[in-house]
Amino acid sequence: MITLADGIRLNVSVSGPQDAAVTVVLSHGWCQDRRTWRHQIEALSGIGRKAPRVIAYDTRGHGRSSATDPSSATLAQLGDDMAEVIRHYAPTGPVVLAGHSMGGMTVMEYAHRHRAEFTSRVAGLLLVSTTAEGHAHTRYGLPPQLATVLRLGETLGAGLLARSGAWHPHRVIMPALRPALRWLLFGDECGEEAMLLTMRALGRAPLSSIGGFRGSIGTQRRLDTLAELGDMPAAVLVGGRDRLTPPACAESIARALPCAEMTVVPGAGHMLPLEQPEAVSAALLTVVRRVARQAKRARRPITDTTRCQRAA
């Protein structure tokens, strides 16, 4: 656990060698928790003596971390939280940041609000099923007019939920919500373990978090921030059937990051780390290995002039 400056306690897991050449920080999505990354944590630990240090944490208002009030249920606050986590658990050495959905937006907010720190510490990125343009491309797989109506209803409902406090009565109706969640969050295939983990995390999320973060998620615009990051190893993944952050979101992110390698996973939905774990793990391992090689060659902090090597 770490206690943040405002008293919120975050549930944090740390694994891997203390003297690892690289530290990986994993940030999960809206209404999920750090278990989203379970397959990637296992894959990173499986590379033996070259394994990185791995930090995974439950965002405030999620998982086993403290509940949060509406005033701090923002992406800006999550960016500040990420900065505190990195300072505490990874005070030195190159860092690779991996973010899924809202976690990817958290990475962007950290870069925006802590630019000097980000530039000096972060050496690689993995952005999965996320966006730098709020809900600009979100259509829920529906015709535009119907999607607009649904978004309006969602936004109004989120405002009510944000004021509903740290309780979760929806947990009892999760089985009834399963078909809708299956359609919204997954693609052609959905393993039982992936579905259960997703539902359990959502059932644990309090109403105040479900509603509270919706506003800043919908309005965030960080393409300019990404374009200013310079060259670094980066991977951008999206499912071909993602109804929340469709391929157009990944395409704009990849254009903003000069060295980003974009992958569209055919037939996959929004929950890629659980739905297509091998693809996500492979992309993360590639970024980690590139960062480790560059750090070894340079034998100094990685700079903008040495970061990008697509063929490395």
Automatic annotation (TrEMBL):
One of its GO terms (molecular function) is catalytic activity. It comes from the Bacteria. Pfam families: Abhydrolase_6. Signal peptide: none annotated. Residues 24-283 form the AB hydrolase-1 domain. Coiled coil: none annotated. This is Pimeloyl-ACP methyl ester carboxylesterase.
